[in-house]
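Why does residue order matter? Because the sequence determines the fold. Keep that principle in mind as you read this record.
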Amino acid sequence: MSRIGKQIIPIPEKVKVELKNNTILVKGPKGEDKFQFHSDMQVVVNEDNIEVKRPSESKKHKSLHGLTRSIINNMIYGVVNGYEKTLQLIGVGYSVELRGNGTHLFFTIGYSHQILIDAPVGVSFKVGKGNIITVMGINKQKVGEVAAKVRSLRPPEPYKGKGIKYIDEIIHKKAGKMAKTTGVG
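Structure:
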């Protein structure tokens, strides 16, 4: 049996879980999230926990078992605590501006024009001192996708480290061109 899939998911007190056909709806203090799981998987919702079962030992069912359990667990964590990714903008003249009640970011990052990023539903932004950008939301996948999209606007370059990087990302800098020395004698 799958090590991840066989683990039972506890339901916190603040969370309500509804199951209809192949769709699970999770409601919590931060919002609500919905997921339509594969029809082969069986999800059993008890009063205080959720259990995911698979019909056979086939490779497909084994992989779906762990995946379904992980997604449901992430949904429960998201509606209680939320997810966030933090990025840092590094570079002389680079700036980011927050507009539209935390849903639009305007970047000035060395191009001839400003770049606008709109947050999808359920995701919001926060900009702090030192060009620190925080992407927040209840859906782990959406938060990760938006953070990756923001980073892809100007990935950090290896010579000076300019660009947009995750706050905990380490940039291994390369040595630039070496000046050629001329030997005397």
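DSSP finds two helices and 13 strands in the chain.
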